[in-house]
Amino acid sequence: MVASPFRPNDAKTAPYECGFPAVETTRKPFDIRFYLIAILFIVFDVETALLFPWAMSFRQLTLWGVASMWLFLALLTIGYLYEWFSGALNWE
Question: pTM higher than 0.70, yes or no?
């Protein structure tokens, strides 16, 4: 081929995101841990994105607004610590 010669190297055949080597069959199912880590990332990413509006309007908030956001942060931290100590974030 002139336009795109096939020259595999270590970078092209290395595992990409799913963690499986590229030389194996495409019918091999994904490990469930990949999906669990992805869902946990999305959950905590969306919850963390909710902190930006709070930070932008922090000076205009009343005591109720500040207290409710601290409660939100406490619940977020408890959830994160639970996932960490239960081993859901470990990839073995």
Answer: no
